[in-house]
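Dear Dr. L.,

I hope this message finds you well. Following up on our conversation about the binding site, I have prepared a predicted three-dimensional model of the protein together with zinc ion. For your records, I am including the exact sequence and ligand specification that went into the calculation, followed by the structure tokens. Please feel free to forward this to your student if that is useful.
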Amino acid sequence: MRETLLAFVSQKGTLLEPAAMDYLLRQENPLVRLERLLGTFPSAPLVVTLQDMLDAEAIARRAASQASTPAPASVVPPVAASFRRVGERAADHAPDVTILRDITGQSTCEGTIDDFTRYFRHRFQVLGGMLRSRRDLHGALDIAKSRKSTRDVRFVGMVSEVRTTRNGHRILDVEDEADRISVLLPADSPLAPEVVVPDEVLGIAGTVNDRGLVIAQSLIRPDIPVTRSFRGTRDPVRAAFMSDIHVGSRTFLEEKWAKFLAWIQDGDEVARSIRYLVVSGDVVDGIGVFPRQDEELAIDDIYGQYEALAAHLASLPDHVTVVMIPGNHDAVRPAEPQPALPASIQKLFDSSVVFAGNPSLVSLHGVRILAYHGRSMDDFVSSVPGLSYHRPLDAMKLMLRMRHLAPIYGGKTPIAPEAKDHLIVEEVPDIFVTGHVHSVGVDAYRGVVLVNSSTWQAQTPYQKMRNIEPLPARLPIVDLATGQAVVREF
Ligand code: D5M
Ligand code: FE
Ligand code: ZN
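The resulting structure of the complex is given below.
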């Protein structure tokens, strides 16, 4: 039965706490109970706990005893049982926000050739250092020495080009600071389906043939440790996530926004438990972001757009602290890393809004959140077969495996050659959030909670032309104590 239950939860994309498993195994019809419990979650939680089980049974018992009085038709959609922590309010906790990493005020680059050389050297050194500290790359040689080796070689390099031969083999041109070499990923090898993108830094193990070509046996990614668990706060606070509000656009979803506001102002206990709102860019539609944008604007003044947003956010309850980063539609330089919105715009908002750059690493009650708008997903989608705008969480997992938010240089994501590569994922966050693709999803990768936050904009003419179907007005909410997540739809 244990195996059956494990197979069932893993197929649902969730995990079962050992105590919950032991409890279930002592009950009659464990599978039926588990299935019924999972049905009460709007989306699969990261982990099903014993508490979830006990709470759900208590709720079911209460519902059964009230069965004679039918519930009103407009009851709130079901939330995860353990999300119902009655009596705990966000208002009881002071804000605890620290910006740990952010480019704001530290930009030094001018975009010269020297800047680019320095930028890529920093990327190579930091990611190369991470790779070399891994056991499977111990004793890695540099490329010049690897070339002369007659035995198995291991080295670290940055991919300068990925080509596919007529026979379906892939050849990577890989370089380090002194040399470059070609690496063959044979079409009939287990490496054939492996994703490789230009400008990523990876480790290669293989053999050198007599023509100086490396036949790869394995690719090694910096990745994040396998053995992490969610490191939550003891404070029972929650964070909600949104992005791509696009205030000022004709397609901004005013009614859905009003529904969200009504809920957070006067909603259920989940609404009252939300202490933070993390807003990951494209907060307004901007001006001149794409050709003929003026035809799609309801507010054609950039300050007017931010003033309208500030008015919307001013209606949030006082206990909600907003953390806001910019995106590609916002009024800061488009090149990443982007600094926080300028003082002339910040002053339009009240003091409950904290501004940070894109990307930023922000601590909320000690829980580290990496927030990135997600422009690079455009480049992932166009370079990686199988990825699409509907699968942002897959692109986010690649970013964590590559330890880089925007590895592909020279695509749609403009990158400023700062002295340091701020797009490297140097510290492993507890929560990683992106927006941009106007989709929504929550997942986990090696103990990191992944959130792709939704939009408050309906399908635009451009998206219609490109067949991009948005999933607007969904609000992912993460419990900062447990890492559990739900998505609330408006
Ligand atoms: O991007 C919203 C969505 O539309 C996101 O999925 C990317 C897609 N999009 C928007 N503009 C482009 C271009 N020029 N090329 C490819 N894909 C695009 P947003 O940042 O809100 O405009
Ligand atoms: Fe957007
Ligand atoms: Zn965007």
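In brief: The first helix runs from residue 2 to 11.

With kind regards,
A. P.
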